[in-house]
Amino acid sequence: MRGAMAPVDFGYPVEGIRQAATLGRGALGRTRAMATMVVRGKRLGGELQRADCEVMIRGAQRLGLPAAVAKGLGDAYERWDGQGGPRGVRAEAIEMSARVHAVAHQAEIHSRIGGLTAARAMIQRGAGGWFDPEIAERLLKHAERLLAPLSASSVWDAVLDEEPFPHVYVAVSRLPDVARLYGEIADLKCAYTLGHSIGVADLAAGAAARLALADADVEAIRTAGLLHDIGRLSVPTGIWNKPGPLSPSEWDRVRLHTYYTDRTLSQSPLLEPAGRVASMHHERLDGSGYHRGAPASMLSLPARILAAADVYRALTEPRPHRSALDESAAASELQRAAERGALDRQAIRAVCEAAGHRIKKRASDWPAGLSDREVEVLRHLARGRSEKTIAGLLFISPGTVHTHVVHVYEKIGVSTRAAAALFAMEHDLLAH
User: Fold this and answer.
1) Looking only at Cα atoms, what is the longest distance across the chain?
2) CATH topology match: 2-161 vs 172-356
3) What confidence score (pLDDT) does residue 133 get?
C-alpha cells in the first residue's frame, strides 16, 4: 500500500482512488480497493500519518537529535495548502526541513518512475499545493544538477559526501541505546514480534555471561541481539502476518531478511562486527539454516548463543500460525533441536539457565503511573487487538477497556497504537 500510494498527490482525490485499484486482484478486488479508499481512505491515512510521526519524533528524541529535527519529522506529511496531516498546518507553520523533504521525496520517487521529466512535472504540478512554491521553484531551476546523484553508482556515498560539517558522531558509550531503538523499530514491523529483539538480547547476553565470556564479548552479543532482526524491514508485513503456509517466493523473501541485516550493519565500521553475528541467527550446526547455509565450523560461539536465544524467545511468543509456548515447552523444543544437531547444546543450556533466572517486574515498578490492569490492556493493545477482543480476553466490558485505553494514552503521552507499542517495548512491558 505504501509503495502504491507514495507517488499520489491526494490534493486530487480521484488520483488516489484510481491508484487504489492497483492494489486489488481481479475486478472484484479492484472495486473493493477503490471502495475502501472512498469510504475509509482519509481516516486510515490520518491514522498512518499520526503513527509514523509519533514514532519518528520519539525516536529522534531518544537519539538526542535537535528539537528542529523532531519537529521536521512531525511535519513530514503536512502540505503547503494545509490539506496534509496529522495537524493540518500550512505554509510557513510547517518546519522548513519538512518542506524541503516533501519536494525531495517526491522528486526522487518520480525520477525513479519516469526520469527527470516526470520529476519536474510532478514538482511543477504540486507547487503551491503540496509544496512550498519557493522550494519547488529552486528544485525546478536546478533539477538536473540536484537529481544527478540519484543515478550515481552509490547513492549512499553521494549522501555522505553532502553531509555538512561538523559531522555528528554517536559516542561508543551510546551504542546500546541506538541499537535498542533500531531493534524496537524493527519489532514494530508486526504485532507478533513486539519486544522480540530486547528479549533475545537479554537472553543472549545472560547466556554469554554464564559461559564466562569477557565483558566486551557479552556486550557485543547483546548489541547483535538488539539488531539481529533489522532486516525484517525488507519483508512485506503481509508475509510476516500470514496465518497459513508461505509460498516458495514468500519463503525466499523471509530467508533474505538475515542477508539484509548483514548488508545494513556492514555499512558502519562500528556495527559491522555485531552484524556478522546478528546475521547468523538463523544458521544451524547441520547446515540447514539460512541465508548462508553455514556449517558448524563457520559458526562462532556468539553466533550459536544468539541462534539459541532467538529460537527460545520466538517459541514463547505468539505467531500468526500458532500460540505461544510456555517456557518449559520452549526449553524442551530447544533440547530436541540439539538432539537433531541443529543447535549447540552448550548454548542451549546457557540460554535456558538465563531464562530460568529472569526476575518478574513488580507491579510497583510500572512506568508513568500505570496500574496492573492498564499494563494488561497496553500489552493487548500493542499487539493489535481490538477493544472488543481485549474485553473478551480480560473478562471486562468494552466500555471499561475503552476507558483504560484513554487513561493509558493520557499517562504515556501518545495517541496512536504504534507509539503505545513503542512505549511498551521501551519499558519492557510485553513479557507474558
Assistant:
1) 67
2) yes
3) 97
> Cell numbers at residue 341, please?
544437531
Task: Of 129, 128, 78, 125, give the one whose Cα is nearest residue 101.
Answer: 78
pLDDT above 80 (res 358) = no
For 425, residues 6+ apart whose C-beta sits below 8 A from its C-beta are 184, 187, 188, 194, 195, 198, 382
pLDDT tens, residue by residue, 125-160: 999 999 999 999 999 999 999 998 888 778 888 888
User: Taking the domains of the chain in order of start, what are their residue ranges?
Assistant: 2-161, 172-356, 363-426
Q: Is CATH 1.10.10.10 the classification given to domain 2-161?
A: no
Helical (H) or strand (E) element with 387: helix 387-394
316: left (phi over 0), alpha (psi -120 to 50) or beta: alpha
Cα(293)–Cα(290) distance, integer angstroms: 5
The fold for domain 363-426 equals Arc Repressor Mutant, subunit A (1.10.10)
Q: How far apart are CA 257 and CA 235, in angstroms?
A: 7
Over residues 176-185, the pLDDT tens digits come to 999 999 999 9
Q: Report CA-CA distances (Å) from 275 to 189, 197, 259, 269, 431.
A: 20, 14, 10, 10, 26
Contacts of 102 (CB under 8 A, 6+ apart): 76, 78, 79, 80, 130, 131, 132
- 364: exposed, middle or buried (C-beta count within 10 Å: 0-12, 13-18, 19+)? exposed
Q: Please say whether the dihedral angle defined by the alpha carbons of residues 134, 128, 10 and 69, taken in this order, is positive or negative.
A: positive
Contact 309, 203 (CB under 8 A): yes
At a CB cut-off of 8 Å and minimum separation 6, what does 348 contact?
308, 334, 335, 337, 338
Q: Which CATH class is domain 172-356?
A: mainly alpha
- Tell me the pLDDT tens digit for each residue of 77-135: 999 999 999 999 999 999 999 999 999 999 999 999 999 999 999 999 999 999 999 99
